[in-house]
Specification:
heterohexamer; A mainly alpha (222); B mainly alpha (67); C alpha/beta (228); D mainly alpha (247); C: 228 residues; alpha/beta; 7 helices; 9 strands; 29% helix; globular; D: 247 residues; mainly alpha; 6 helices; binds protoporphyrin IX containing FE; binds adenosine-5'-triphosphate; binds magnesium ion
């Protein structure tokens, strides 16, 4: 069972690599959205510094959002979702494996790219640690919650926009804790409380999201 | 040579060693890497063409300019 | 218990889009058995096959495997069945071999030889071609080659002959017969004749008292059943 | 025009050019490296950081030049259905993107000691960053198609639209920036370049150009071979289908 | 000019995915004519039909309408043809009537009666049902009803019999015969027998010089400059 | 011909209405993204005011981006794009009609919703006129350029993310002129130069975009 699980993750990583860029596209979108902001609000370093953490988080959130669309859709369209559902493995574990692969190809690269964007946005040097730690905890939550949304809207007309509407409100707590952690650190405060909250949300999401998404997927298969 | 021959002085680049050497270093690595990758891709593509041409029946006249 | 058939469907009914597709469908299947599903378009053949695989929940009725209801130990049942549906379930970016080996490894059977399986369907030489470049018939052969990539006693085939030419149909017949000789079971939905040794036939007909959309049914039935 | 449309003829021409371009690249880059690192004097204002210029400026010029070349090749490919032109455009993109990235990186590494920051949203910097995105989008578009003939035409359209847009972007960004941030420390013109810096710089520029040509030849060669492989593969599948049908 | 056939394809060839599908295909069609396209799966029937409609550019060869090359006045040619492809081209959110009337209005023919057109295919009573709820055969009937919604002398039908039952096939035969009697032309790709009066048959076969390598080599070597 | 053209626009408007909310979804996304910002960067009115115009523009840009995905995709998938291409009308005019319909269902409603978001973001009262005028000129450009991107990526694997990557860099001039107009107005300067530039880009885009997009669409039909 655990071998099947690992195989599933490897399968999705292989497909992401073969089907065109995988994580590269998410990173590019991330960098793009962040760069739109200086263009929008002007290049003044003080302004940028003030909105840096918020912008990076919002951009990360939007990047994850956009990549959710194909999480189950491609497998549904070509019939491989049937095959995955017929593996002698609970569907929720299949979902979990796909979610992990999704995080490895989006959330993780985004986290790694974040310091670079910190430079672009004149992020305060003290905030880097908190930003990255919060993203390491927060992006898996985004993937997990996103999996529910993706499963609910798979095979639905205008699924993309609907997905956004369903998922965005659920992302707000992550956004708030993530940004506050960076801002606390920038002002020299401790940010361990924020990390604690994020960890709590993460644990909850790991338990609930695969089960909820598996339920939703069964509807799409029916 | 504009430096008195001292290696460490040369490497320090008047205190800007990190910036100068990273620039040249990363630039060199990227350009050499791209060159090597391009040569390797050309070689492997040529090899693949040859292999598949061998498989094709009734292979006719000159092969492509395989190198 | 010993007399109970290996696979048994009892009084199954399907509801799709608030419409009763079929009802009261039952069947039995034992080692070496072949069940051919027939019926006009839209009768519910695909639905029944997906229901047996557990992808669609029955609206009524139950399914029994080795004497016990399937829900009891679904994973054991799933480990013993392979479903080849209407869609190929192949990743077009991967080669035939990669697709087959992925399938085998996911089911914990890494010892099978993908090229040999492809050879049974006459396309061993396409083993390293990405599926994207294959024609519909070649794709279907690859997807059927999955049957040989993992041990399973129950094969569920939905329209397996689609896009196959006569040579491939004969090859499928050989494979199916070998499987049945070894004690395997096959359920296949098809409009055409299946190759190989004959089996039993189950025709799916609309429920007698389906009055939810009478005019639709009248229309679809036309005057001639053989049209389907 | 059509004389070089023929892949075989192109390969022959390329094989003839390759030794020269490789030699020029090696000589100029080698000489430029020695001159720029060892013999050129430090700038009186910028000190030794001025040695970054020998990479930065050629990379900047080449990344713009390569895009222009790509746009021209795309136009030729679209209008005359020239088969090697689209491969040249395709093969150019990664090289141009690499130059663009090197320019951004070295500029950033230069900016830290000179301006005290890795990055500012200066007009020139911003438009360079956008150009990198345009390169990446172009490359991703090629990747997205299975059918290479379609990919070629789609990418050519994008390259041309991007070519129209780049000047607009550059202009708008310049205008935007000067409105908000009157020229301060970020003036690029700097001191007039002294001959002792100019010569190694020219060497490096020529070297970068020759390097581009060399890598381009290898990449186009790979593309041509890959296309032939694809065709033969498909032919193999067809033959197989025909055999099956004959049975 | 008067002797030239109304529609003429000369030496047409198709390249898809860098592969030559067919070459040297020619045909002629005049008032009242029916051309049936046959050939094995993947031979290029759909490609040829789309090429005639102008959706696919010919790799070689030319198409002549009323004696002049089609490219000269494509819009006049398009105004005179209706294409019913493999896909229905129906909006599932709209009803049958809405779909048909949209089609007619876009082609500037607002006088036709959608319900009558649907009636010719025996589904007048489904006129106000959203297409989403229809079965495959019903959808195909709606998409064929488009033929009656706008005047056009050339009908291009790709596998028109798919999903149709025998009743509907007969109705299509009546419609096609009426169209031909009124001077219209029909080109249809199908594996099965077309209903109605017979016409001429064009079988599409892989390029005569079946040694595909030869073509590829030629192309690579550039003996045919026009290839590029 | 002009009647066909108007019919085409009406067709797309009808479909947008029938297929689920149409413009409502874009507006909701727009409002959602803008409201993420006070959450991300904190509620301080000075900060918000400084970034108000930029944020609104960036959000508008992202909303348009997201809606582009389905511009031609739905018609390709069900075969209606074939029928549209076979109308006795140049394909570029078909594209133009669909672009106008797209603008009517996204750009225009966004413009109408912008004043509301201005309130939310503490936009300077002097800037409203400029913001709306610039959006009226700028959002059609977004639809036009977006049509090129949508046509290039229709029927392509991972089309959505790719579309974003291609289109965003091309949107930057609109963003810059649009924001600068609002900021100039907020500081009491004239913004007619900005409007002039936007008009110039719009005229260019109206000529070029339908033709380029029609070329690209032919590839998808082939
Ligand atoms: C990431 C930051 C930077 C970027 C993206 C960048 C980009 C560019 C570009 C696009 C050019 C144009 C080349 C041409 O027009 O031919 C250029 C030239 C130049 N840059 Fe930079 N630059 C950056 C930082 C710097 C810094 C920090 C300095 C020095 C203080 C600098 C000094 C120069 C010089 C001296 C030239 C040549 C001047 C000329 O001929 O116009 N750059 N750079
Ligand atoms: N997702 C769905 N929602 C609503 N109705 C559906 C759905 N899928 C199928 N149906 C309906 O269920 C019925 C049975 O469909 P099914 O695919 O099982 O038929 P079938 O016998 O396999 O037909 P075919 O011969 O065409 O394969 C059809 O009448 C169809 O209209
Ligand atoms: N978009 C495409 N890219 C590459 N090859 C294609 C594409 N579409 C079709 N082909 C190839 O072109 C050939 C002809 O396809 P076409 O659909 O015209 O065949 P057909 O005669 O209509 O077949 P069928 O009987 O299945 O309808 C096929 O071999 C197919 O593999
Ligand atoms: Mg079925
Ligand atoms: Mg066909």
């Amino acid at each position: 069972m655990s071998r099947t699980f690992l195989m599933l993750i490897r399968r999705d990583l292989l497909l992401a690599r073969r089907q065109g860029g995988g994580s590269l596209l998410s990173i590019t979108f991330f960098v793009l959205v962040v760069s739109l902001f200086p263009l929008g609000v002007g290049p003044a370093p003080e302004t940028l510094e003030r909105i840096a953490a918020g912008t990076i988080w919002v951009a990360a959130l939007l990047s994850v959002l956009l990549s959710l669309d194909r999480m189950f859709q491609a497998d549904l369209e070509d019939g491989s979702l049937d095959q995955l559902a017929l593996l002698p493995l609970p569907l929720s574990l299949v979902v979990l494996a796909k979610t992990i692969a999704h995080w490895l190809t989006t959330g993780l690269p985004l986290t790694l790219a974040a310091p670079l964007l910190g430079l672009l946005m004149q992020l305060s040097p003290d905030a880097y640690g908190a930003l990255i730690a919060a993203m390491l905890l927060g992006t898996p939550i985004l993937s997990l919650i996103g999996a529910i949304g993706a499963a609910l809207t798979v095979g639905v007309r205008r699924g993309g926009v609907l997905l956004t509407l369903i998922v965005t409100p659920l992302y707000i707590p992550v956004l708030i804790f993530g940004v506050s952690a960076a801002e606390a650190a920038a002002q020299g405060f401790s940010y361990s409380a924020h990390m604690l909250f994020l960890s709590a949300i993460l644990s909850g999401a790991i338990v609930i999201a695969p089960i909820a998404a598996a339920w939703a997927l069964k509807l799409a298969l029916d | 040579m504009s430096w008195g021959g001292s290696m460490s002085e040369f490497l320090s680049m008047g205190g800007y060693g990190f910036f100068v050497w990273t620039s040249w270093g990363v630039g060199a690595v990227l350009m050499i890497g791209l060159l090597i990758q391009s040569i390797a891709a050309a070689r492997s593509a040529a090899r693949e063409v040859q292999a598949i041409e061998q498989l094709s029946p009734r292979r006719r006249r000159r092969k492509a300019d395989a190198e | 218990m010993a007399e109970a058939p290996l696979l048994q469907g009892r009084d199954l009914a399907a509801l799709r889009g608030e419409r009763l597709i079929f009802a009261g469908v039952g069947f039995e299947l034992d080692n070496g058995g072949l069940l051919k599903l027939t019926g006009r378009n839209g009768a519910g053949k695909s639905t029944l096959i997906r229901m047996i695989a557990g992808l669609v929940a029955p609206f009524a009725g139950s399914l029994h495997w080795k004497g016990a209801e399937v829900g009891r130990d679904r994973e054991a049942f799933l480990a013993d069945l392979i479903y080849a549906g209407h869609q190929d379930g192949l990743k077009t970016a991967l080669t035939a071999t990669e697709n087959l080996e992925l399938f085998a490894r996911l089911r914990g059977a890494s010892d099978r030889d993908a090229v040999a399986a492809l050879g049974s369907f006459g396309i061993a030489e396409l083993a390293d071609l990405p599926v994207r470049y294959m024609s519909a018939g070649q794709r279907r052969r690859v997807s059927l080659a999955r049957l040989l990539m993992s041990p399973a006693s129950l094969w569920l085939l939905d329209e397996p002959l689609t896009a196959l030419d006569t040579g491939a149909i004969a090859q499928l017949g050989v494979v199916v017969d070998a499987h049945r000789d070894a004690g395997g079971m096959v359920i296949a939905a098809t409009h055409a004749d299946l190759p190989g040794q004959p089996g039993s036939v189950l025709e799916i007909v609309p429920p007698v008292d389906a009055d939810l959309d009478t005019d639709l049914d009248d229309e679809m039935d036309g005057d001639r059943e053989d049209a389907w | 025009m059509h004389r070089f449309a023929n892949p075989t003829r192109f390969l022959r021409l390329a094989a003839a050019v390759l030794p020269f371009s490789a030699a020029v690249a090696a000589l100029c880059l080698g000489a430029g490296l020695v001159w720029g690192l060892f013999f050129a004097p430090p700038d009186y204002q910028q000190g030794d950081t001025v040695r970054i210029m020998f990479i930065h400026v050629p990379a900047a010029m080449m990344s713009m030049g390569v895009y222009a070349g790509m746009a021209i090749a795309s136009a030729i490919a679209l209008i005359w259905r020239h088969a090697v032109a689209d491969l040249i455009a395709k093969a150019s993109a990664p090289i141009g993107a690499t130059f663009c990235f090197i320019c951004l990186l070295t500029g950033s590494l230069w900016g830290k000691p000179m301006w005290g920051t890795w990055w500012v949203w200066d007009a020139r910097l911003t438009s360079m960053l956008i150009m990198l995105f345009i390169y990446l989008g172009y490359m991703a578009l090629w990747q997205a198609f299975d059918d290479q003939t379609k990919a070629a035409r789609a990418a050519a359209i994008l390259a041309l639209v991007g070519a129209i847009n780049l000047p607009i972007i550059k202009f708008s960004v310049e205008w935007w920036n000067t409105l908000h941030q009157p020229a301060s420390l970020i003036t690029m013109s700097g001191p007039k370049i002294h001959a002792s810096l100019l010569w190694p710089l020219l060497l490096m520029i020529v070297g970068f150009g020759a390097y581009y040509l060399t890598v381009l030849i290898y990449r186009v060669r790979a593309e041509i071979h890959m296309r032939r492989t694809r065709m033969l593969r498909l032919a193999q599948a067809d033959r197989h289908a025909a055999m099956q049908a004959a049975e």
